[in-house]
């Protein structure tokens, strides 16, 4: 997207649209029909662009659609990211059995969304959780998981 | 003067070598929409609104009518399904930038632009 020189319309405008729609999908704001929208837009961009940039920019997108169509559907329909990659779509929780209550995650949480006291298993309040993953990174016991 | 025998939308013509598709089409009364083309400017070929389908044997390609010139015997289709579909998207991309598209006002970023484009495309349905 940043590489487009901006000379011709399909590459300059179109690739940005593709990006916006993809961002929506990975943020759980995808809608039914978005995949088809991406495909037909991609076609027009590839056929209408002057140079190789616009002619090939949508290619990786089209191959991900071809081989990971079910992932797209999961994001759009179930608002789920099966691979646990899209930050906005995952939830974090603490496995009680593994948590010794060290309070490390509690202190590192930027939104104070983790409650609990020392030596007692902690809990993540999902309403305020911003899915930053800081708790998971800091936990020495592998008690924080996401999915 | 060398001429090339070509066809535009099924009409067989002998046109001067290096004649512009757009000019020949206009002579023939065939309308091809244009945007960045202007009589006082050098053809630039960037808006891609004037794309037409060029076929040569089994090879086919979309070419801008405002810069593409006849040098070989080719067939031109100014209104094929392929041309229409691509042109519609290009116009939609432009319309999505227009001030009337609220989604582009900066609020909420441009995240809705793709949909604006789709909407713009929908609104144009049925138009040439
Ligand atoms: S009129 Fe703009 S590309 Fe031909």
Characterise the protein shown here:
- The complex is a heterodimer of chains A (147) and B (128).
- Chain A is mainly alpha-helical.
- Helices cover 45% and strands 7% of the residues of chain A.
- The mean pLDDT of chain A is 91.
- With 128 residues, chain B is an alpha+beta fold.
- Chain B has a single domain, classed as Ubiquitin-like (UB roll).
- A 5-stranded mixed sheet of chain B has the order 2-1-5-3-4, sandwiched between helices.
- In chain B, a hairpin with a 2-residue loop joins strand 1 (3-8) and strand 2 (11-16).
- In chain B, helix 2 (81-95) crosses helix 3.
- The longest helix of chain B is centred in the C-terminal third of the chain and has 15 residues, at 81-95.
- Chain B is globular, with a radius of gyration of 17 Å.
- Chains A and B meet through helix 1 and helix 2 of A and helix 2 and helix 3 of B.
- FE2/S2 (inorganic) cluster binds next to loops of chain B.
Q: What descriptive keywords fit this protein?
A:
A: 147 residues; mainly alpha; de novo design (two linked rop proteins); 2 domains; two-stranded antiparallel ribbon; 7 helices; 4 strands; 45% helix; 7% strand; B: 128 residues; alpha+beta; five-stranded mixed sheet; disordered C terminus; binds FE2/S2 (inorganic) cluster
Radius of gyration of chain A: 20 Å
Helix residue percentage of chain B: 25-40%
How large is the share of residues in beta strands of chain A?
5-15%
How would you characterize the largest beta sheet of chain A? 2 strands, antiparallel
Distance between the termini of chain A: 30 Å
Q: Low-confidence parts of chain A lasting 5 or more residues at pLDDT below 50?
A: none
What is the chain-wise order of helices and strands of chain B? EEHEEEHH
What structural class do you assign from the helix and strand content of chain B? alpha+beta
The dominant shape of chain A is elongated
Helix content of chain A: 40-55%
Strand order in the largest sheet of chain B: 2-1-5-3-4
User: How many strands, which pairing sense, and closed or not: the largest β-sheet of chain B?
Assistant: 5 strands, mixed
Strand order of the largest sheet of chain A: 1-4
CATH architecture of the largest domain in chain A: Up-down Bundle
How far apart are the termini of chain B?
A: 35 Å
Our estimate of the beta-strand percent of chain B is 15-25%
Structural class of the helices, strands and pairings of chain A? mainly alpha
Number of structural domains of chain B:
1
Label the CATH architecture of chain B: Roll
Order of helices and strands of chain A: HHHHHEHEEHE
